[in-house]
Write a structure and sequence with these properties.
Shape: globular
Distance between the termini: 61 Å
Helix content: 25-40%
Bound molecules: 2,5-anhydro-1,6-di-O-phosphono-D-glucitol, manganese (II) ion
Structural class: alpha+beta
């Protein structure tokens, strides 16, 4: 019968990219596909180390901190090194920006792409075995690009691709191309291949789930306080309050929001005036995923996240992202506060 039929027509990430390259038309020289092969090798390697971290003494602090003031975990440093080596090794990348590197890294050669990455997102959760992930974005350098950090001070609308890999029960890669769909791949550890498991992911238009660190409430502006209050103590007749879900790894909160719907927020506040999350390698790639899945992403000033141009490579922004209707509600409350 049908459901016992073995699927022998498996779509691996490699096959998906080859087919996509065909869609991208003749100008797709295969460079992007080779870059993505290097990307997926990074995810497989990072997944390998994360799963064994406790066994090979790779949890805990590295004893250093990064430009944005985070204490670096050993796995932050390992993930960063893996990413640098694979991006250099593929020969297609000219500039790499990483959360863990103060300056942009310029590779020799004539790579046409710039990559931004958060090698391990949610690393404060690592030692507790909570899901963490890798976030990435890919820009195609302009022909007259000089190949330095300034080439990367671009809005999310310039991204040619973005996504993340969440190292949870299995490794889940979520990938989207400019103006394209969002596709989910699951790493089959036996084959060592990412298999297309969630074609054309769409975020539900609404969902009564909110995801924010309420420990920051006293630092929020009045509009932010009023918005979350309206979810927790709705005034409408017979309205039910929202559920709270906050994991503390953006990748895990984003993946749940993409699958179930709802709103994720890390607002700018009195403590973090520009917000905590970094524009280039956290906010913009996630905004592109949410928009391409039918959702939205805005800043704490209610500006479209994809339009924001970072002032420097580690610049930050407040962010509200998720279901289309849920972000509309945020805009409504902020509009009432003028
Ligand atoms: P990273 O581990 O890459 O530095 O990112 C951590 C971020 C993000 O993953 C998460 O949404 C946020 O920090 C959680 O911050 P709080 O602990 O302040 O809520
Ligand atoms: Mn960090
Ligand atoms: Mn992060
Ligand atoms: Mn990180």
């Amino acid at each position: 019968d049908q459901d016992s039929k073995v699927n022998t027509d498996i779509i691996t990430l490699t096959r998906f990219l080859t087919e996509k390259q065909h869609d991208l038309g003749t100008h797709a020289t295969g460079d992007f596909t080779l870059l993505c092969h290097a990307l997926q090798f990074s995810f497989k390697s990072i997944a390998y180390y994360i799963r064994r971290a406790t066994l090979i003494n790779l949890i805990g602090l590295a004893g250093s901190s990064n430009k944005t003031g985070d204490d670096q975990k050993k796995l932050d440093v390992i993930g960063d090194e893996i990413f640098i080596n694979t991006m250099r090794g593929c020969g297609k990348v000219k500039v790499l920006v990483s959360e863990e590197q103060e300056e942009a890294i310029i590779f020799p050669g004539d790579g046409k792409y710039a990559v931004v990455c958060d090698p391990i997102d949610g690393s404060s959760n690592l030692d507790a075995g909570v899901s963490v992930g890798t976030i990435f974005g890919i820009f195609r350098l302009a022909d007259d690009a000089v190949g330095d950090a300034k080439d990367l001070l671009l809005p999310g609308t310039e991204l040619v691709a973005s996504g993340f890999t969440m190292y949870g029960a299995s490794a889940n890669l979520v990938l989207t191309m400019k103006g394209g769909a969002v596709n989910g791949f699951t790493l089959d550890n036996a084959l060592g291949e990412f298999i297309l498991s969630h074609p054309n992911m769409r975020i539900p238009k609404k969902r009564s789930i909110y995801s924010v660190n309420e420990g920051n409430t006293m630092y929020w502006d009045d509009a932010c306080k009023a918005y979350f209050e309206s979810l927790k103590n709705p005034k409408e007749e017979n309205a039910k309050p929202y559920s709270a879900r906050y994991i503390g790894s953006m990748v895990a909160d984003a993946y749940r929001t993409l699958c179930y719907g709802g709103i994720f927020a890390y607002p700018a506040d009195k403590k973090s005036k520009k917000g905590k999350l970094r524009i280039l390698y956290e906010c913009a790639p996630m905004a592109m995923i949410m928009e391409n899945a039918g959702g939205q992403a805005v800043t704490s000033q209610m500006q479209r996240m994809m339009d924001v141009v970072p002032e420097h490579i580690h610049d930050r922004s407040g962010i509200f992202m998720g279901s289309y209707d849920e972000v509309e509600k945020v805009k409504q409350v902020y509009a009432n506060f003028g």
